[in-house]
Amino acid sequence: ADLAGFIRGLPKAELHLHIEGSLEPEQMFEFARRNRVDLSYKSVEEIRAAYEFSRLQDFLDIYYAGAQVLLTEADFRDLALAYFRRAHADGVVHAEIFFDPQTHTDRGVPFATVADGLLAGMAAAERDFGMTSKLILCFLRHLDEDAAFATLKDAEPYLDRIEAVGLDSSEVGHPPSKFARVFAAAAAQGLKRVAHAGEEGPPAYVHEALDLLQVDRIDHGNRALEDPALVERLVASNMTLTVCPLSNHKLCVTPDLRAHPLKRMLALGLRATVNSDDPAYFGGYVGANYTALIEPIGLTRDDVLTLARNSFTGSFLPQDAIDKHL
Ligand code: ADE
Ligand code: ZN
Hints:
The chain is of the alpha/beta class.
């Protein structure tokens, strides 16, 4: 009867979440105060009012500015734990979280401060909420290949605690090919690979992510639907797409949610999942990303069951752990 209640109660995994994108305005003020960082905003209301985006870059500019308040290991731990608390309330039992080390190392925050803080938050979430999680290191694609290699080097002491590398930030003009070598190096070190592709960029970028980065998942992938041969390839390879409905809406990838492709993706046999991307900026955590589609595209209980199943089969959990969740 109550689909929103059913969604909340159903165990789910989240596979596309930028931890810096879970920084709520209230927390931004708190961290700015305790770290004595100057914020250009005067109030939480003023921050929220600035969250009007017409494309990805509008959001990224504000997102990188917001992250400047994060300085200490405690900040990263508190940020992660606050995310896990909200995700837990939405029925998320496993999360694979992205972090953008370059956003922090480029302003003098050591890689270890970021990683140790996030890992402490992940350990606390397991202890307090029984949630499991994995860490995915994302390279910023607007920066160059050398910077990505330097970041992979920074990560070396942590490679046993990092599951995968990813690729995010400004997509158009920064194709996956730019990072083919660093992804190959990451693969050689035993890391899995994911990449944002086909959010604003063309289907050719999705092909490149598959061919040149050898990705295990595609983040977003919306524009793959423009290329029937690509769709066929994604279906045949059981490729997981980490779709983010409220992000798509707020960044005008899908200005009208009635045109959201999620249901079409499922009908085509694509392994689509529902995720929150940057929940503090886009208006909701995983639960809200499911419920936002109920009315606009007629998401059903069966669709929700499929999506939750896909979230586990598409995860990097070992097969026996996946089986336990299905
Ligand atoms: N960084 C954080 N969120 C992102 C998104 N949706 N696309 C690209 N880069 C991002
Ligand atoms: Zn993203």
